[in-house]
Write a structure and sequence with these properties.
12 strands; homodimer; EC 1.3.99.41 (chains A, B); flavoprotein (chains A, B); 600 residues; acyl-CoA dehydrogenase activity (chains A, B); eight-stranded mixed sheet; Acyl-CoA_DH_CS (chains A, B); globular
Chain lengths: 600, 600
């Protein structure tokens, strides 16, 4: 069973992401080291003791749809109630609406624990956080006063309604329409698909944020507006009124996250109690500026999906490690250390076999790298927020957060799939049997590289929009920081690092080369040359960054040679992929385009 | 829906695996080009039109266990009857028992189609083939006369009973016991797990081959014997008699291949109709030589599991390609060719996007490589069989088959998982919805790297047992052949090959270096140094071999530049991984052992 790695999470937050320094400099608001420890401890307890035990039943029963209603698995409603009672929903919420206003990095860390315990549980509140962010940043005074308190406390949950059958990765194809009404409200009509927690029985009301198009809107993404559409209209006294004209038409039968209802939502088919056709909605932000509103929360939403991959990966690593310590198979011919011959007939725990140790160390290195990248992104978001008014710092941290966001979404979600798959492999035949729980982790993890912008889209975003930030100086400054880590490794003269400094330095050279190559193509307008290698580049970047962060963690713990050994393992075993990825990036579009004929 | 790639399969058999030359030289028995075409066409029709339509229901309903009996999904019993009526079960079976005695390579090709249509269907007959092989090679005259005709026709099916709870990868821990009886029969007692098609309603009788230990047997694998245990005893006239004391206790609830019942079998708990306790069994081969009997069929069994991965990978590639041609999303900013700007507002098929094309080409290159390796292994098995009496040829082809077997099992099954996962990614959100069918392919594929010897075990086998064959000359001769292909690519001066010759030559140099490195450690008795990099070496070997085979295919089709372009794509995009894998192999055990501390 999942056990939240509280100590490791605290260490990564403080010494890798940079929270320690920020706390010292007073840049984290009310957050002190003691408070941080208390939060992580209590979150760890809740995740391990309360959420994790309900994960299997959530998978087995799943959310059940019947007659427009969705019933959550046994025990989940009560679980959610206990979770909100603990104040967890409002961790980052605005203080004037009952939130604790804590840093996103802390929220990300805690969120890793929810997702490690159950990704199907963890994803729901993430959407509420997004709704809170959107309303806080762009909502009217009226909307804030009616909705924020209850969304921050978790009494109500929020949703994001973007996708339509013909509009997935490309939102410009949206067709859901909104009509103005004289009282300033709108009526929404259309169908949305893949709406996470679009309907359920955890809360009395559900607050949908819906992208739609006004009749006179410009074509494409510049004609999209954002609307708030509650499941139940809210009376002046805050009580629930009539059922709005929005309903769940069906839920998807998915590969995983079975307890997370994925809904098809119908707006405006006349089934509400309002006496008219059309779901009553309120504009959030300005007309035709809906995409901008979405983008303000996109960064944190993408980070939180990355955190899902991370959480599942950590759970899978733990599960495989536990099994490999218990399960005994094989004898001396398979032994890691020929010299440590066991007594005849004695079987050894499979962790002793080199190939199993390799898998486990790969998992650990990937999980730790993914965590470092994700938390660093969260910290950058926080520092940007804290830097308001200090122009240089604001620009630095905003661009750092922007740069890291596609890495923080794509890499941990790829790692989630990779590590969950390795977890099955370590278990052998038992991994394929559902009762073991390893299969669930892979089934759950497989969605994360897809939603909230596929990882292919993240790679495009990284290359085409993030590299050019400040004309390439943003990425260059970041690589400088990674190189400083490599230099510090070299300067440490610590034997446990092995050849980490050399290998990391070499890989960072490749990162610099490929970055320059891509920027050159972008500047010359050869977008397709740059994009052909975008996915390879994102992974290359992530491996370099992740390994540098492992080294940084080891440098921060001079006595913990196991940290240096992990950085070294990654440098020896995973970082060599960087040179291969460099070749892929630089192969460009020509070999890819030439090969298209092979697809005919 | 899966459509068997008959033309491509025929091409790979003839021009890559080497069947064309063997047919010309008269080394393929009755098999002529016309007969081969007819077999592949008809198998393709059966797989595409009859099996594929029942795959989804097989997954949804699954095999159902109740009161010791297993009911197969709707339509499956009839499907199996039509399949055996078509003579498909006896393709490689001995002619004197009604089989067609065709080459294993042809059987492998046809088997790819069954598995492409439905892996849960394809796996069943594979086990019957194994049973036929074991009985033909080691069974008594009595066993052959009673069982072979019906196993060859498919009237009865066979099973393999190896695994026990405490004995998975390590068979030396077997506890199932066998007792001698005065009439020359045995009584079997014990529990076996993960028995594929251990119980079902497709056939009237099921013939179990069971590994067990005699009371006076030596410890370890040298004390294991093989027994034939029928579900129903067979009367003198061939009719079915009393129910034997063997039963299915339960079936596993698995991640995939739901229609393939995975059974826990109980032998000898007194529930048969024989009036005594103990399942009646007959010895196959000699006492305590059971593992040798298993090994005679192990090669083809491992190949057939590789074929499962291949079949699923092909199905996943086709599914993704179809979707990428139909689904339209995105516009010019994402376009593969900047210059081909579509009219404003027009969305392009996603195959136009570079990252999607990259995924599809990766899938195609991996599938084609895996096919080439698997068929080449099958062909080597056939040539070894055909070479009986010609000592040099026999040794050459036997060792070639032995060398290729771990590659043919591990690489295609890894590719199955990789390609099925990419198939989901290409589909976006729709890939995660079960009705689409993409998720099933990944769920099905995930077992293949595990059973019939995990891929980690395959890597150990490759390094520790196959490389030393003929003191390293076997592997050296094989690499020579691959290098001859690289040289032929260079000599062809075909522009479509791009830099394939250089890149392949470089990778083959790495293959030679790592092979020498591993052999050196083996000769010096440093087994753990060699095994630490075994998995990386297996993949390195497979990528080199696969890319060389793609080039060989292109050389055999001088006018088909799309084949050369695919070889080039692989050389540019996938082969660079070889240099990274070389580093992993050569990192050896030290960095891995040092990092073990990070697992504490």
């Amino acid at each position: 069973m999942y056990k939240a790695p509280v100590t490791e999470i605290g260490f990564a937050l403080r010494h890798v992401a940079g929270l320690e320094a920020a706390m010292v400099e007073g840049l984290t608001g009310d957050l002190t080291p003691d408070l941080l420890d208390a939060i992580l401890d209590e979150a760890g307890r809740f995740a391990s003791d309360e959420i994790a035990p309900l994960a299997a039943i959530g998978d087995r029963e799943g959310a059940v749809f019947r007659d427009g209603a969705v019933t959550m698995p046994l025990g989940w409603k009560d679980l959610y109630a206990r979770w909100t009672a603990g104040g967890w929903n409002g961790l980052t919420g605005p203080a004037d609406h009952g939130g604790q206003g804590l840093p996103t990095a802390v929220s990300a860390a805690v969120c890793e624990m929810w997702n490690g315990a159950s990704m199907a549980f963890g994803i729901g509140p993430t959407l509420t956080i997004g709704a809170v962010d959107a309303i806080e940043a762009h909502g009217s005074v009226h909307l804030k006063s009616v909705y924020l308190d209850k969304l921050v406390s978790g009494e109500w949950m929020g949703t994001m309604n973007l996708t339509e059958p013909q509009a997935g990765s490309d939102l410009s194809a949206l067709r859901t329409r909104a009509e103005r009404r004289d009282d300033g409200t709108y009526r929404i009509f259309g169908q949305k698909i893949y709406i996470t927690y679009g309907e359920h029985d955890l809360t009395d009301n559900i607050v949908h944020l819906v992208l739609a198009r006004l009749p006179d809107a410009p074509a494409g993404v510049k004609g999209i507006s954002l609307f708030l559409v509650p499941k139940f209209l809210v009376e002046g006294d805050g009580s629930l009124g009539l059922r709005n004209d929005v309903k769940c038409h069906a839920i998807e039968h998915k590969m995983g996250i079975h307890a997370s209802p994925t809904c098809t939502m119908i707006y405006g088919d006349g089934t509400g109690e309002t006496g008219e056709v059309g779901a009553v909605g309120w504009l959030v932000g300005e007309e035709n500026r809906g995409l901008a509103c979405m983008f303000t929360m996109m960064n944190s939403a993408r980070l939180y999906v990355g955190i899902q991959g991370l959480g599942v990966a950590e759970a899978a690593f733990q599960k495989a490690l536990d099994y490999a310590r218990e399960r005994r198979q094989g004898r001396s011919t398979l032994l890691a250390k020929d010299r440590r011959e066991p007594a005849s007939g004695e079987m050894v725990p499979i962790i002793e076999h080199p190939d199993v140790a390799r898998m486990l160390l790969t998992m650990k290195a990937l999980v730790s790298s993914a965590r470092a990248i994700a938390y660093s992104c969260g910290h950058a978001l926080d520092q940007a927020k804290a830097a308001r008014g200090r122009e240089e710092a604001l620009r630095h941290w905003s661009e750092r957060a922007n740069l890291l966001t596609p890495l923080a979404k794509a890499f941990p979600t790829d790692v989630g799939v990779e590590v969950a798959s390795l977890c099955i492999q370590v278990h052998g035949g038992m991994g394929y049997v559902e009762e073991t729980g390893a299969a669930r982790l892979l089934r759950d993890a497989r969605i994360a590289p897809i939603y909230e912008g596929t990882n292919g889209i993240q790679a495009i975003d990284l290359v085409s929009r993030k590299l050019p930030l400040s004309d390439g100086r943003t990425v260059a400054a970041y690589i400088d920081e990674l190189e400083a880590i490599a230099e510090a490794v070299r300067g440490s003269n610590r034997p446990a690092f092995g050849e980490t400094a050399d290998r990391l330095g070499e890989a960072l050279g490749d990162l610099r080369d490929t970055t320059a190559y891509l920027l050159e193509h972008l500047r010359a307008g050869r977008l397709s040359e740059a994009l052909a290698g975008a996915t390879a580049y994102l992974r290359l970047f992530s491996l370099c960054s992740g390994n540098a962060y492992l080294a940084k963690a080891a440098l921060a713990a001079p006595d913990a040679d196991e940290r240096a050994a992990l950085a070294r393992f990654m440098a020896d075993h995973l970082l060599p992929e960087v040179a291969a990825l460099k070749r892929q990036v630089m192969a460009g579009a020509s070999s890819l385009d030439a090969a298209r004929a092979a697809l005919n």
